[in-house]
Specification:
This protein has 83 residues and is mostly beta strands. It is 0% helix and 71% strand. It starts with a strand and ends with a strand.
Amino acid sequence: MSSLTVELVSPESRLWSGEASVVNARTIEGDIGILPNHSELLGVLTEGEISIKAVDGSEHKFNLKGGFISVAKNRVSILGESE
């Protein structure tokens, strides 16, 4: 089964890093869900929640004030300002 390599960082620290099965985020164009093999994407995040479901089944939620998300080759990079 494919997975996503996810890294969520803020200017202050790394908030979460690991393997995930799905990432949900809110962009300026609306809510998005990212699954393995998602097409390449570069987006601007708005204030809202980032939800990451790890491959072990645990779910991690973070409130961000905004930021950026990049998806390419099953790698998801999120740079956001945490609340």
